[in-house]
Amino acid sequence: MVLHDALGRWPEELGFTAPAGWIRPEAHQEEDVKRRTFGSVTASALMPGPTATQHVDPALIDYFQQQLEGHYRADMFLGPHDLIGTVSTQYELIDKLLRSAKGETRRGLLRVGAAYAALVGWLYQDAGDVGAAAFWRGITQEIAVRSRDPHLVGYALVNHAQVRTDLGDGHGVIDLCESALDAPRILPKVQVMAMQQQAHGASLTGDRTAVDRLIDTAGGLISRVDDDLPWGNACRRTPGYLEVQRATCYGRLGLGREAESLWSQVLAAVPATARRDRGVYLARHATAAAGAREPEQALEIAREAAEIAAETRSARMVRELATLERVMRPWQDAPVGRDLAELLAPVTEGV
Predict the structure, then answer these.
(1) Do residues 112 and 67 touch, judged by C-beta distance below 8 A?
(2) How far is the C-alpha of 147 from the C-alpha of 106, rounded, in Å?
(3) Distance CA 287, CA 268 (A)
(4) Fewer CB near the last or first residue (10 Å), C or N of the chain?
């Protein structure tokens, strides 16, 4: 420490042998940060149980389900950071109640608890924290298995597959989705979710034929999605849900013109109030336009996407804009490229 204070360098950097067991102070600080981060991510899921039981009214199941629908709507407007604390705290309460609940009340709380855990995982994924997302996907899987609900188990597997998609692991995505689809008599909603996610896996492995087959098959099931379960309803809530997935897969496959045409159709139906989703779609549309060698169009589309990214702080949107920057590199020295770099600098710095 004396050498470092005097010279600003550690003993081993000056050629001295570090004492046995020597660990730099900043290494301890980094470990402290990691422990605090891990603690904040896991606190709501790993709370010790209460020492005394309490009565759990069955009406609480409906209460949490109604709150969940509100959280889904808020996510469309706000992005992840403003909701993580609220939703994870409610999951913590559900977990506490599960320690005392019995019978059908317990099973109902397990089902809604799995949906809350899945939403926390999604919020962390949208915020760009893949490690935290994977942790909460694991909690979702655990609660789903405890609920003994095969549809919920399939939903949890698709949630895991979403993380594998972000990691670029196409074969892992396909494995998980095929496992979900192997379950007998699963709901059409779970089948649709698994097939569209498997299409993303196929796009990561370069298989356009499988992408179209899976999305077309899922399209034939959409009209049969008629359950009243509170989770997994993006296929009913999102305009052009399956074409969004197809356009995303086409972009990943490098099919710029096909993707650009699909995004034009999709965005015409997306309400301006769905800010976060609209921002992601605009960023992908801009990338598709760049891939179709239309850089000026890409720049114009990116303007609104960059504005929404700054508002919502969605890491997923920022990643999409960073992808746009890479696809626009052939024009980086042209005026359109310099304009794009100036536009995106405030939101993609450090990505």
Answers:
(1) no
(2) 9
(3) 17
(4) N
Residue-wise pLDDT for 217-241, tens only, equals 999 999 999 998 888 888 888 889 9
* Distance in angstroms (rounded) separating the CA atoms of residues 26 and 35: 14
- The closest of 233, 245, 267, 138 to 198, measured between CA atoms, is 245
Torsion-angle region of 283 (φ positive above 0: left; ψ -120 to 50: alpha; else: beta): alpha
Give yes or no for a contact between 193 and 186, defined as CB atoms under 8 angstroms apart: no
**Residue 7, pLDDT above cutoff 70:** no
The token duo for 346 is 């405030």
Give the Cα separation of 102 and 108 in Å (integer): 10
Residue type, position 302, single letter = A
The C-alpha atoms of residue 274 and residue 278 are separated, in whole angstroms, by 6
Write down the residue that tokens 């204070």 correspond to: 5
How do residues 132-147 score in pLDDT, each as one tens digit? 999 999 999 999 999 9
pLDDT at 180: 97
**Other Cβ atoms within 10 Å of 26 Cβ, number:** 9
pLDDT at 43: 64
User: Nearest Cα to 344, choosing from 293, 302, 282, 288?
Assistant: 302
pLDDT score, position 50: 67
Q: What are 97-130's pLDDT values in tens digits?
A: 999 999 999 999 999 999 999 999 999 998 889 9
